[in-house]
Specification:
five-stranded parallel sheet, 2 domains, 19 strands, seven-stranded mixed sheet, disordered C terminus, disordered N terminus, globular, Delta-1-pyrroline-5-carboxylate dehydrogenase 12A1 (chains A, B, C, D), Aldehyde Dehydrogenase, Chain A, domain 1, homotetramer, Aldehyde Dehydrogenase, Chain A, domain 2, alpha/beta
Chain lengths: ~500, ~500, ~500, ~500
């Protein structure tokens, strides 16, 4: 029961210390009390370092790998990668956590309150301009996107934490009961943790995805091991230090950098009761097999948008299309991959406005930037295949960025849109090609006639991954027809519908 | 604990008997096993009789009153009215029930299952054509409406009972809990009964309103005394007998016929912990005072409908207007009292179609019939006052029914619509007059120009009672504007919106 | 729509200013940026002043009343009491708010987020030691209780506000829908505000009760007028200023000081759609009548505790009894008014331990202090009546406090316990006397034999007000028997059960 | 839209026909209107036949297999087994169903009501003695258990159907919404179907498991293919016919008999979006791999019971132990596999009473009967291995049944209990052996001393499958300790706790 005493001690003693520091934040120009580096100073000459955390201790590795700055190719970050022979402490740490978790409604309930306090403090920290700027800039360094987009990630994380202040963590553990058959009988339903769990997150949202998944797991009494894509793990490594500063017991989470093979071995040996994986379908399927189904997958999607017959607010709709397809250089899971335009929109200025907006994107402010999982060559090759489909044409983009120093292992492409006729998309020979997801600033555009809605619905039905979608219309019958005949994680409906930019308070119903 | 044993015994033994009888229902032309009369045979020469139920016994009275047949004035029903000096057994019966009720999650939980069984059996009984016909006809005899409208009442009652089959009653008693501050602590929230309660229901839905309110009270462990308007209490008296037949313990409900003064005295003496009153605002306010606030009121409303700027499906909308205003001779709480037409509708055939539909209503099939709370004279007088408002005119109706034998204590009016200009409605001198609710086949119609929506909203804001409303439009911005700026129990929205005809599964959010 | 723009402007601009100030809090020894006075400096020579707030402006009055310091009788606070002729601005302000409220799911939804932000900031303010000390001391000045008890009130308020950070306010407005009968039909259920409302709160929790009730009303879109008992309204007047500082629009709440007669007149004229009243049953019943039932009452209770047959942890149980009966000088709604001891407890040291604990209470640290609604004389007179009941005896206390300067309009009594035999309590002549609630450090103690539990349950059934109760036992059958046969707002069960000290996360299920 | 019209037609027309038939049920001694066989007449000379259902048609097969009567070895049932070359119609049928299902909140919502009606009628059918006897006897013929146990299965199925009468199916599709960031924005969460799904169920509950899983899938708009273990599929084949009789559209479900290899091939080709599998862990893991995780598993468990330190009601507890371990010959997923007795129970008559109760079980009334997945030899061999563990001993049973004609492919064992010392269970060499699940009348018994609870908890933590468990005690601290430190689908707590016999209203929280 040592932990309980310790955590209570924290709650009584820490605030004073913490508040003292928070005031310093406004006065001192130099450092944040939890951080071990400065976001803007990381460079080839002063590389940032990323450590592992296991059994409450930050550790290095016998094998440091090096990361190239996506903007100029400098070796700017060193990662302590855990090798296959070094996994034992992680396996042991995970195994220490019993299946009934670190807490549950019948065990250490004061920990629900502890996590309410941690969330309150961490949310407040992220609300401080100095702290939010630190994480915004750190995100930009490794996952190039505009300041506004990176700041949005920090703010969504802050709002998520605000949602679990006070008693809200314990309210998550709300149980229910119904009267039984006889006097003295009641049936109760409780939420129970899995105990030891693993969380594996991708490169595109270095802060938001791991924090939301990690905190959710912790709130309910699980002990997670967290692995973030090494390309961006520096962000979450610093966030772990902020959470410790806000009272997170250091032994509650392990944090690891490693390649996929090592992580796979670790999972096979430590055998967590659940693994939450966000990333490519290919890896997801392998994990499902290796872990015998004990895995939850947050996959990607070939996200579509349909413009309905009622044309309105062309300026606004063009702007949303540009944001959905090209913000974060198209590297959101929810990015618009294909646009189905009703013929009524063809006669408007929609496409030319989209082109103008795309032209305004530039490398200097990262409104367009490096693509981390496709090279320029690979994207151009895909484009050329598409352009061989009869009737296809390049609407705009389709060239490498000018005057850039992005290393060749990454991609550098202008925002690109390719028109492909609907009838061609539906042909068996073309369908797989056209609906291949390119995780970059790249979209397909097509048009449908008033009587071709069934063809569009057929194209949607044949897709494999369904994450987000948008039905841009205020016509209730059109909305009903499309929504009732499709399936998505989230469908945005209405004239102002989008595929991206969901607030922190929405739901993925898969 | 005798009751528990008894109720279990019922559950093991009764079904066989019941099922035997149910088969008889299909073969025998004569009688229902629970009923004490035949709906079609009640007449001046063979009057029906309505008894009281107290402490498990059906009782008469020293003072029988007589009811006139609303269609021909014959003395066709005799009611055993309880006088002020006879209330003692009712007071005692109610006082026997403790505040913690006949059951709660910690007391006699098997009674939740008992009520699941009663509901299952009663729902099945009402699904039998012979039984549903019996209640449909009985309703028609005392609360004249078309066969379809009266049958609808039986079916809604059946569906309500189906919703509480099996375990659904005990699911109503679902509780919740959250972890406490320390090991061993949890906070639980339970639903508890009031114990002794009273239910007072009006004439217009003789079966649906009392059954839904009574069963809801019983499910949660309350012991109700039920008083239905004597004009129609014969329906519920027979339904009580059906419920007993389906296993309702005879001591769980008392059933009383009396005048208001006697009932008031009874309530003051027995002091139920809650009274549920459905009826006129005038009585409601007196009860709120006498019972010092321990009363829940289901009041009426001056229900409005707005036709938006988008004209569509004029035939359908006219038909709904006719139904909303004139079905049950306008004697639904949710009947359309005023219609606000956007000017775009004025140039359509809407009003002439409404007139045609009104003309088709006739006394023979009760699509129009006696008005139980207003005389013909009173309604015509109200009409004449309205017609004095500048710009007002009679659209249709406005005359006494032809060739009827409705007794003069009741009303007999053709379906009537009066046009009043919007500007006049809003004037202080007219507003109270125009928005006076006439519980009969009577509505106000007005028109608003495109820029007059704020005036309409102002008219709605000034009303006192808000039960149902309809916004007839598929324009999302118009819907948002009207819904966001009004308040109603239920608002129906969409081109097919109505004010009446709610299914059994809707909610009154007041 | 001016308001919306304004509130958005606030959200973008205010945080910087606010955060700047918050840092000052740690450095400056002098003032809080929102406060208009210093809690410790209020005195006869430098009296505190309490203003009214109406239509966004702080206002004085033509008629200032004066409050006596409960500890020494000095005239230490001046209140701007609104007279009957000055109520017009308040009536107008309330009338401006429509029935559909300041916001609802279809109107100004951004205000849900605004209130999430206000809660986040106000919670953070209360977490700052300087601010929590300010309110703790201010509470102590007007509602004398120990520092710990007053601080607890501030902390519960802080936790409540934390529970509504981020999106939690909009989550309160969660609606639901179910599929309809036909394509295109759905039924939705929304939470709607009342619009103009009134809140009237008592003296004993000057911060917690008004803040919780006020914020709950505001979250859902209501516009409240708030009246706190003038004896303590200085606390909430300062809290209003803190809320404004945290972004509360100044026109969203009116704040009034007045006598009951004036308030009654105001309510009759402004006609709020709901009034939430916490206070004496006498006033509550009058309000229910005057407002025709449009009132929700949070009444008091004659709160009981039963010690079951299983004796354990006598020290702990004695301590809880002392806290429940005498903390805040017994002036909590949930204070223990009567203790039913199983005979097994009589042979333990329970009563002598309770006496020892009571003896340790002293005026210096306010562990016992002034009674604001009973004079010493009145309490002693009540005691003497009780002591005339056969078999009654004084267990401890029963005297005026020594060496105090509490003015004579207040009470000053040592913690007091009177033993009355169970059989005597149940007698008709005695029952009303024994169960009269004394809002002071005063409790009844009695004993029951193993076979007398039914008598105890009978005594509980006959009480009128049921707020909290405690069943001190770990015997599941005993717990079931008592819980299943009683009714309370909150029942605490288990060996460590108490009647007071509920956390912020509990429920009053009445 | 043909289906909608058809289903409405059904709803209007069918009841009359159905009710006519139901009355026949009481008069005719011969046949049920839906059934194609008589449960008691199936025999070697008149074998029952089981067909497949695909695309709305009942079909045979080119390859009929034969089942042995588990009581006498006669070839009594012929199964139309679908071969690998015959799966095409099934694949096509499943593929016809889109991902958005047969209905969803925006598509064919009238089907929610249709399923409410089907449930109402099917529940009523199962409540008829003739029908419930038919299914009870049919279950007994293929899955030998006592009449009471088989009848229990029918009744649980009936109650489940009652829970989804009326509107309860559409209530399952209840959605929610919260206000968005701006005017006009709301977030909605809906429940959506998977579309094409597969359900695979085991032999031990031939009616309850498939009906509950099938109806749940249908309610939400899925189109299932159902495969029940061929040993017992005759029960569900007849139930399908009852459901058609009650209005189930014949194309909504396909029903297949096949071996596992063929079913696996079908699943790989038809690619249902979810497969729900109940059965052995071995097959479950293979399916998880083959279906890449798109599978939900309802696995078995090595279910434990702990008797706590407080000895009480020895007769009752012995009786529950006998039921939990040996009812249905131990072939429930929830059967008690191991009993941990606190030393206080050893000195009672518990074990001798359990022996007496086991001795009363006999083949004639099927209180003990054939074991369908283990031969007698296999069970005795396992027993002998256990008896070699030091300190182990046979408590009772351990022999083949006398005078039986159970064919040798099945098992025939007397109810058996083996004592193994706790310390031996925990040894690595023994643990896997002792905790091997034997799906038959077989249990392990052990004892723990007052200070050995941690060892017991350790034994529980090491188990792999956790379905049900029982903590037999009324000591709140003991209950808290065990519940807080274990994990199970369902834990029964209290002196009357059991591992089996859950009512239809409970929850498996895995």
């Amino acid at each position: 029961m040592y932990r309980v005493v310790a955590s209570r001690a924290f709650r009584a003693g820490a605030p004073q210390k913490a508040f003292g520091c928070w005031c310093n934040l406004s006065r001192s120009a130099h450092t944040l009390p939890f951080a071990t580096l400065e976001a803007d100073e990381i460079s080839g000459s002063k590389p940032g370092e990323v450590y592992n955390l296991v059994q409450g201790k930050w550790t290095g590795s016998s094998n440091w790998s090096t990361l190239l700055d996506p903007l100029n190719g400098e070796q700017f970050i060193r990662i302590a990668e855990v090798g296959e022979k070094e996994i034992q402490p992680f396996v042991e740490s995970l195994s220490k956590c019993p299946k009934h978790g670190l807490h549950n409604p019948f065990k250490s309930p004061e920990r629900y309150l502890l996590y309410g306090d941690i969330s309150t403090k961490a949310a407040h920290m992220l609300s401080l301009p100095k702290v939010s700027n630190f994480f915004t800039r750190l995100i930009q360094r490794v996952s190039p996107k505009s300041y506004q987009q990176a700041l949005g990630e920090v703010q969504v994380t802050q709002k998520f934490l605000e949602n679990f202040c006070g008693d809200q963590v314990r309210f998550l553990a709300r149980s229910f009961a119904v009267p039984g058959n006889h006097l003295g009988q009641q049936s109760h339903g409780y939420r129970w943790p899995y105990g030891p769990v693993a969380i594996i997150t991708p490169f595109n949202f270095p802060l938001e995805i791991p924090v939301l998944q990690l905190m959710g797991a912790l709130y309910m009494g699980n002990k997670p091991i967290l692995k973030v894509d090494s390309k961006v793990s520096i962000v979450m490594e610093q966030m772990m230090r902020l959470l410790h500063y806000c009272g997170l017991p250091v032994e509650d989470v392990d944090f690891i950098n490693s390649d996929g093979k090592t992580m796979n071995k670790l999972l096979m040996e430590a055998n967590p009761r659940m693994t939450l994986f966000t990333g490519s379908s290919r890896v997801a399927e392998k994990l499902a097999v290796d872990l015998k189904g004990r895995v939850k997958l947050e996959d990607a999607g070939f996200d579509w948008k349909i413009l309905g017959p009622d044309v309105n607010e062309v300026d606004y709709v063009s702007w949303v299309c540009d944001q959905d397809a090209y913000a974060c250089s198209g590297q959101k899971c929810s990015a618009q991959s294909v646009l189905f335009m009703h013929e009524n929109w063809s006669s408007t200025s929609l496409l030319s406005k989209m082109k103008d907006l795309a032209d305004r994107r530039k490398l200097e402010d990262l409104t367009v930037g490096p693509v981390l999982t496709f090279t320029t060559e690979a994207m151009l090759e895909h484009m050329n295949k598409l352009l061989k489909v009869p009737g296809s044409k390049l609407l705009f983009g389709g060239e490498e960025l000018k005057n850039h120093s992005i290393p060749s292992i990454y991609g550098a492409l202008k925002p690109t849109a390719i028109f492909v006729p609907l009838e061609e998309i539906l042909k068996d020979g073309n369908y797989e090609l056209v609906t291949r997801e390119i995780f970059g600033p790249f979209q397909i555009v097509t048009e449908y006639k008033q009587d071709q809605l069934p063809l569009v619905l057929n194209a949607l039905e044949r897709m494999h991954a369904h994450l987000t979608a948008a039905v841009v219309s205020n016509d209730p019958l059109f909305l009903q027809e499309v929504i009732g005949n499709t399936v998505n994680g989230t469908t945005y409906a209405g004239l102002r519908a989008r595929t991206t930019g969901a607030p922190q308070n929405h739901w993925w119903v898969k």
